[in-house]
Amino acid sequence: MAVRPYWKGFLKLSLVTCPITLTPATTEGEKVKFHTLNRKTNDRIYTRYVDAVSGKTVEKDDQVKGYERGEDDYVILEEDDLDSVQLESARTIDIDEFAPEDSVEWTYFDSPYFVVPDAEISEEAFIVIRQAMTNKKVVGIARLVMGGRERAVMLQPWEEGIILWTLRFGDEVRDEDEYWKEVDDKPVDKKMLTMVEKLIQDRTTKWAETMVEDPVQERLKDIIKAKKAHKTKPAKAADNDDGEDGTKPSNVIDLMEALKKSLEGKPETPPKKSRR
Q1: What is the predicted pLDDT for the residue at 223?
Q2: Which CATH number belongs to the domain containing residue 121 in this structure?
Q3: What percentage of the chain has pLDDT greater than the value 90?
């Protein structure tokens, strides 16, 4: 069943405009959710903002944003100050830049949304924009206000529609060079490389949703079901770090020997096909 749109507005490219809706492409609706309770009363516990000094609850009208410039020294920002730096229109995605489709690093990707024409009359403009981006192998870069926050977004043609990705800002993504600099770029043993490539080939299969199933959720449901029936909680599988003879395995691994043994055994069973 289709989910109600999260956002309604307009997609604009120069003088071409069409009404659209955004709907989250992902959901956590199937996840087991918990409330925090008072163990003694079984009553729910609510979060409240309290004054750090007096300990008293602060009403919503008395809450204000503050930037800390020193210890106990804040610059107060009123709603008018925050509004003055927002986009002029919170209801229009104005595409003013494009980038090659493979040039945006995945570390910038945040949350995906389905972009859908909001009226039959807008389908033609929507399709033209999507197809032109597909032909040119580009993605559109724009800005959008969502949930009271301005976001950088990327519009990516996807099959018959468009996926909008909210993007992390540049200062939110760490520089990978700081981490890779410790990795030595030394020559690879050709024999070992061939063996690893063979392992990869044996374990390569078609993508399926079952590859990313969450086993924790099923275990939680089993525990909840057992508790409802007043049964004992299912026993947790014991971790066994010992070898077959009960001794601790050595941390020193002969890579070549490990590869040989891996190739002697059968590859793991490929994931089952996606259930649709």
Answers
A1: 83
A2: 2.40.290.10
A3: 30
